[in-house]
Amino acid sequence: xxxxxxxxxxxxxxxxxxxxxxxxxxxxxxxxxxxxxxxxxxxxxxxxxxxxxxxxxxxxxxxxxxxxxxxxxxxxxxxxxxxxxxxxxxxxxxxxxxxxxxxxxxxxxxxxxxxxxxxxxxxxxxxxxxxxxxxxxxxxxxxxxxxxxxxxxxxxxxxxxxxxxxxxxxxxxxxxxxxxxxxxxxxxxxxxxxxxxxxxxxxxxxxxxxxxxxxxxxxxxxxxxxxxxxxxxxxxxxxxxxxxxxxxxxxxxxxxxxxxxxxxxxxxxxxxxxxxxxxxxxxxxxxxxxxxxxxxxxxxxxxxxxxxxxxxxxxxxxxxxxxxxxxxxxxxxxxx
Length: 336
Known about the structure:
Blueprint: H1 2-19, E1 39-44, H2 55-69, E2 72-77, H3 85-94, E3 99-103, H4 108-117, E4 123-126, E5 135-140, H5 142-156, E6 161-166, H6 171-187, E7 192-197, H7 204-216, E8 221-225, H8 230-240, E9 243-248, E10 259-265, H9 267-279, E11 286-290, E12 297-299, H10 311-326
Parallel strand pairs: 1-2, 1-3, 3-4, 4-5, 5-11, 6-7, 6-8, 8-9, 9-10
Antiparallel strand pairs: 10-12
Helix pairs in contact: 1-3, 2-9, 3-4, 5-6, 5-10, 7-8
């Protein structure tokens, strides 16, 4: 049954080419038009798809840059459900793509199976570790970047209470939470942190509800790590007049002046790098981890809030960043 479904998905991809559905890096037309020497990359996005102004969009930006810099073509799918992800991965592999990238930890089990069934395929996954000789696992030290924004929140709060809204309570999001809590504790151990999980990455209504509730309990700065759910946190910040902190991509522009910063998680860089390796014929399976030291996580340049945040706060953040890099500040992950 799985093989049949995979075949149908592969046929569907070919049909989309024939009917002229254009995708980034690919000129719509007959399937044979892409049967050339260019590297072809297939991307399976996380549930929620493009337009999240966060995780998926960051990966898309990395692919766009790869298209601009290299002679490649890429196609993508936006699954409606986790159950579809493995079949989409298989469809790209069976269609002969040179690299297949799964965006998000929800793709882990599917990629484990695909890696085993297609040992010659080149695969990559973001936010999960698949222990297979043909998979590049692209992970991040979210706890380090979250430490920075936690320290910022503690330095900027006027109420002594800050908040955190997570998507699903899973290991990668728990890394954001514990890093944030450590940063708050480091700057001011008397600041309270309110923690809530929405149970979804695509429910802005729930995100807004939780943010309003936290604000009612005194939180004047709320950090979200919840994908599209965070759009509700921003809406609440704008309406209720508190500060928010974005995540993954630069979200500062969504509510200018109301979002103190965003904890950048350079999914775009990770995706770009693995494509560059394949283009150069140097695909490197195994663990690739990105942290503060190499710019893999960090903060934005505070374009809209530089006049709001005192200079001494920026100085403290710079000192904390250097401390993380040189090891004088140890940030534990959720599972240390």
